[in-house]
Write the structure tokens for this entry.
Amino acid sequence: MPATWTTDEQVDFLNDELPGFRAAQRQHRGPQFLRGLAERWFERWPEREALFFDAADAPAMALTADDDERLTAAISLPHSD
């Protein structure tokens, strides 16, 4: 099996979202669906934990200025309506 960036739990989550995504595409509401998907995704898997894997054990840990920049860039999503 090829390497993947997702865990098995994340693959299951994305597969569960697929029918809603297809429906949104048919209704020309893909961007709105993807914004909601991103919100649901990052509620379950915060980017801070993905970038700084020890953050789950110490959520209040202080970030360096460089780390804070990386996190800000990672969570900045383009907005188009």
Summary: Helices lie at 8-26, 30-44, 47-51, 65-75. The radius of gyration is 15 Å.
